[in-house]
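Recap slide: Nuclear transport factor 2 family protein, sequence and predicted structure.
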Amino acid sequence: MDTYTDRAADITAVLSDYFNGVFKGDTDLLRSAFHPQALVAGDVNGQAYFKTLDQYLDGVRNRKSPFELGESFRMEIISIEIINQIAVAKVRLPMFEFNYHDLLSLTKVDYKWLIVNKLLTNVAMV
């Protein structure tokens, strides 16, 4: 039986792949965490941001990663809410002098949890 604990562990594993893909600039690992039709939207310092998964991965591919820049890994899960086969994760990704907060929608597709939507914003550090 698929328990809440099992689902939370599976989602945490996907979020770990997401964090490591972002941190190391590993677009293959990132792609494995997302549904192919996922959308990425939000704002960065008040500027609208809207991309397809391929556009988002292209941006990651064409920049230096936090790892390459010698940054510390400080990404963290703030919360996970799970209802049946859907979930929302609130995560924080401090990098590149930004303090990104993401809301990630996930669903289980063919026995695997995948990110289907990423909402992001930069929150000024106080």
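The domain at 4-122 is CATH 3.10.450.50 (Nuclear Transport Factor 2; Chain: A,).
The chain has one domain: 4-122.
(End of recap.)
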